[in-house]
Structure formats: C-alpha cells, structure tokens
Design goal:
The complex is a heterodimer.
Chain A lengths: L10 E10 L4 E11 L4 E5 L6 H8 L7 E6 L2 E2 H6 L3 E4 L11 H11 L4 H14 L15 H13 L5 E5 L7 H18 L2 E5 L3 H7 L2 E6 L4 E7 L16 H17 L9
Parallel strand pairs in A: 3-8, 3-9, 6-7, 7-8
Antiparallel strand pairs in A: 1-2, 1-4, 4-5, 9-10
Chain B lengths: L1 H32 L9 H10 L1 H35 L1 H16 L6 H8 L5 H22 L5 H9 L4 H35 L9 H10 L3 H29 L1 H12 L1
The chains are: A alpha/beta, B mainly alpha.
The complex binds adenosine-5'-triphosphate and magnesium ion (MG).
C-alpha cells in the first residue's frame, strides 16, 4: 500500500502498445490514458480489443512492447513489488485446496500479516460479500458467482490504493450484480482507491465510473473517453439507475461504441 | 447415510464373498480330485502351516517389510527432491530425463545379483537399494508431472503478490502437485514390497519372506512356501492401504467432503 499521495496519478500510460509475438497479434496500439488517484475508470469495448491485455500491463504481468507506463509515479514492476494494487481476474482463480477464508487471507499471509489480524480481516470481507456462512468451504463447493465474490474479497484484502478488476461481475446474477456494484461504489468512496474496471455492461460502466474508456477492436486503441458527471461515488445511490442523466450517459456510451465498430460482445444490460 | 453405508458394505462385502467362494471351490477341488500337494496345496493345509510357523512368518513379514519401508521412504524422498530440482532447472531436467527413462525400462530385479555382490552377501543394503530404485522411478515421474500442474491464473496471482520462489513453491506448486506425488507413492508402495521380496531370491541374509519361500519350495514344503506367499500378499496389502490412507489424509478437500458427507 503506497502512501496515498493525492497529487500522483494512479496510472499514466503514454503511447502504450503490445504486440504478442505468438501469431504477431497487435493487441494494443498507442494507448494514452491517465487514471487519477481515487478515480474510477471503466474499460469497455468489443471482445478481443485488448482490455485484459491493458490491465495485465498495468499489473506488470506482461510488459508493453512500446510506450511507457507508470503506476503511482514508478515503473509498473516497482508498483507490483510494492503491492500498490489489488487484482481480480476474469476467472476467479481461487486455490482449490484452500478454504474460502484461507483464500482471502492468502495475500495477507504472503506479506507476513499475523494470524489473528488475518482472521479478522477475512471475516470482515466475507460479511462484505455476503458469504460468511461459507468461510470453511472449499471453492469447488461454491457456485461460479460465489467464487467470483471471494476473488473480489481477496483483491480488497490489503486495502490497495489501486484496484484492477477484469469483468469481476460477469458471472453474477443481475440482483447480486447490482448489489456488488453498490458495494464496490461504497468501498471506493471509503478507501479512496483508484479503480481500473473492465466490463461488457454499459449500465454497469456508467453506474460505477467517473470516466468510461471506449476501446476499438484490433488493434486495440482508445476510441473515446467519456466523463460521467453523475456525482462522486459516495453520492451515487440505487436511485441513480432510474435517473434520466444515467440513461443519457448509457446512450452516449452506446453510441460511442457503435461508432467505433459493430458492437460485438457488448450488451446493453 | 444409508446410501453410502450400504454401497461401502457392497464394495467390501462383494470381494470378500467372492474370495470365500474361490477358497471353498479350491479346497473342494484339491480334496475331491486328489491333486498332489506339490501341484497345489489346499487352503486348509496352507493355514495349518501359517499357524505352525507363525513366529517365523511374522518375523519374515517384518524383515521384508522393513527393507521395503526403508526403500519406499528413501526412494520417495530422493524421487521428490530430484523432481523438484528438475522442475527448477531445465539443465538438470534434461540431464536426468534419459537416466530416468533408462531406469524406467530396466527391470530392477535384473540388478539384484549385482547389488548383492556390491554390498556384500550378509548385508540388507542391496535389497533396500533395489526397493529404493524401484520406488524412485514412479515417484520422480509423477512428482515432476505434478509440479507442472499450476494454472496460468494462479501463476499470475503469485506474480501479482510479488511472492518469492519459496513462497510460490509452498502455497502453489507443491499443493498443486500433491495428488500426483501421492499417486506416485501409492504405485511405488507395491513395487517396494515386490522388489524387497524378489531381491531375497538372489541370496543374502535369510529370514525374509523371499528367502523362506525359496527354501520351503526347494525342500518340498509346498504348503509352507504358500504360507509365506500369503505373508507377501498381506504385506503388499498393508503397504497399499497405508499409502492410500496417507493420500486421503493429505488432501484437505477429501477430508472436508467426508465430514460433510457424514453430517448429512
Ligand atoms: N498471450 C497471448 N498471446 C497471443 N495473443 C494474445 C495473448 N493474449 C491475448 N492475445 C490476443 O490479444 C487480443 C486482445 O486480448 P484481450 O484478452 O486483451 O481481449 P479482451 O478485450 O480482454 O477480450 P474479452 O472481452 O473477450 O475478455 C486478442 O486478439 C487475443 O487473441
Ligand atoms: Mg478480457
């Protein structure tokens, strides 16, 4: 967890490109993006446009082939080693031989947090994602949506100042999804964490984000960036979903998407 | 509760019933058809011999069992350690691959006379070495396989957490390999007993199952030879059951599944 320096941007990407040598795929090209500290930014775009790739570059799980990328003013590698971010992948990625609570405690355990503090933290997070009763189960005994919620709890375990989330709510039913969106919104308001959030859902992006980044298909580029201007995360309530301003933003994002390309893989939920 | 219990009863009961039927048929065949003892002794005469030579039988099981156990433990430790090194170092992997492939096709039994001479006729070391070699191969191969079972998303996770190599080994690589390692050990357990027993056919100290089987057979005590064969079967079974139980104990998931199964 880095010192929350309000003046340092969470992510600064300048002309970032990524070419995969396998098949010579250009996944990203000339991506310029600034995510300010505490800002919620969603990435939306057709399937295969490089959203996950961009997230992986920020997380230093892959290296860009061109351009520069800094996270809290340092190299992505340094930020990863300093544990400045928490991450939730497109797949839950829980360790099947660990119980639910042991999975949530994994990052704490690796970073030397004591047993009692770990227990307390995992209990907090379990109640946050509504799975307290499942603490001693194993992941295989849970539904896909429940596993995904555990993975989100795990990403939040160390209260990171940057959250990287790749379609974390994709496997959830609509009710749980909206509840988790509201929770995430509250968490961000509380912790002041910056979030880079990949989604296929336009309303989800609009509800959660300060800005929505619309990407175009291969080679992945930033098509447009839309500011949501729907108030800060703490002011956003369920009622926002029925607000006309909300629908206007949904329409604006949809139009931006359709301009770029036939919106394959993007739904209007 | 009824379902699993009755299926367990069936699972154990059916083979036992079959065994009894076979034994009775065997006894009847031998007595009614008057088959000679050297061809096929009757189950009752074998049991008689087992009772008569009970202390020697138990001592033989213990002696061969100890050799097999030492071979199993040492062979497994060396096999797991070598697989770990091979998984960490490509060079070592490529170095050992042909050696292991060669070991896998060499009938370990063929080494018995050589090893016996190597370690001296009055030593158990040759036999233990044979058991250890027989164990090493399946444990090494299975462990190496198991160490390659980590999923990309889990490796990404470890990288995201900036986990050190020993940490990754402890929380990811080894647990992912656990099932494979235990499968290797379970396969190896029978091989350990077979090798320790067969090694005794080629001389060395007396008193184990293998040497008593060959002495009994060569002095025409056929039923006694069979009594020691039964001892060998029992020993193999013990090794198999203990390693299978260890495998269950070592898996946190199967432990929890049996718990939830019982509570239902
Ligand atoms: N390791 C890799 N090797 C080669 N090509 C890759 C690799 N990873 C991704 N790609 C390619 O890069 C492009 C972008 O992939 P990416 O996973 O970032 O898309 P995405 O926007 O996350 O799609 P989705 O919405 O379906 O998750 C795709 O064409 C994909 O085939
Ligand atoms: Mg993706």
């Amino acid at each position: 967890m880095s010192p929350l320096d309000e003046t340092t941007d969470a992510v600064v990407a300048t002309g970032v490109g990524k070419v995969f040598p396998a098949g010579n795929v250009t996944a990203l090209e000339g991506v310029d993006l600034v995510v300010r500290s505490g800002e919620f930014v969603s990435l939306i775009g057709p399937s295969g446009c490089g959203k996950s790739t961009l997230l992986r570059l920020i997380a230093d799980l892959d290296a860009p082939t061109s351009g520069t990328l800094t996270v809290f003013g340092k190299s992505a590698e340094k930020a990863r080693i300093d544990q400045d971010y928490g991450i939730a992948f497109q797949q839950a990625g829980l360790l099947p031989w660990r119980t639910v609570s042991a999975n949530i405690e994994l990052p704490l355990e690796l970073h030397g947090v004591g047993k009692a503090a770990r227990k307390q933290r995992s209990a907090e997070l379990l109640s946050l994602v509504g799975l307290t009763d499942f603490a001693d189960r194993f992941p295989d005994q849970l539904s896909g949506g429940m596993q995904q919620r555990i993975a989100i709890a795990r990403a939040l375990a160390e209260q990171p100042s940057l959250l990287l989330m790749d379609e974390p709510f994709g496997a959830l039913d609509e009710m749980t999804r909206e509840r988790m969106q509201t929770e995430l919104s509250n968490i961000c308001a509380e912790t002041g964490a910056a979030v880079v959030f990949v989604t296929h859902s336009i309303p989800e992006a609009v509800f959660l984000s300060d800005r929505v980044v619309v990407m175009s298909p291969r080679p992945g580029r930033i098509e447009t960036v839309l500011s949501m201007d729907l108030g800060s995360a703490s002011e956003r309530a369920e009622s926002l979903r029925e607000d006309t301003a909300f629908f206007e933003m949904v329409t604006a994002v949809r139009e931006a998407l359709h301009q770029g390309a036939p919106a394959r893989g993007v739904d209007d939920r | 509760m009824n379902g699993p219990a009755s299926s367990a009863a069936l699972r154990i009961g059916a083979p036992v019933a079959l065994g009894v039927v076979v034994l009775v048929a065997w006894q009847l065949l031998v007595t009614l058809a008057g088959i000679d003892d050297y061809l096929l002794p009757s189950p009752l005469s074998i049991v008689e011999q087992m009772i008569e030579f009970w202390p020697a039988l138990i001592a033989a099981i213990a002696s061969t069992g100890l050799n097999a156990l030492i071979g199993l433990v040492v062979g497994s430790i060396v096999g797991i350690a070598a697989a770990l090194v091979a998984s960490l170092s490509r060079f070592f992997d490529q170095l050992t691959a042909p050696i292991v492939a060669a070991l896998a096709v060499v009938p370990i039994v063929a080494l018995a006379p050589v090893l016996n001479t190597m370690f001296g006729a009055d030593s158990e070391v040759g036999r233990r070495t044979m058991a250890g070699l027989a164990v090493f191969v399946p444990v090494f191969i299975n462990t190496l396989r198991g160490l390659q079972q980590t999923r990309p998303v889990h490796r990404d996770l470890m990288r995201a957490y900036a986990a050190t190599r020993p940490q990754t080994l402890r929380v990811l690589t080894l647990p992912a390999a656990r099932g494979y390692i235990f499968t290797g050990i379970r396969i190896a357990s029978s091989l350990a007993v077979i090798s320790a027993l067969v090694a005794e056919y080629f001389g060395g100290p007396r008193g184990g199952l293998g040497s008593l089987i060959s002495t009994s057979a060569s002095t025409s005590a056929y039923a006694r030879a069979w009594a020691y064969v039964v001892g060998g079967i029992v020993l193999g079974l013990i090794f198999f059951l203990v390693t299978a139980a260890l495998e269950r104990l070592a898996s946190p998931m199967s432990r929890s599944l049996t718990v939830t199964g019982r509570s239902k």
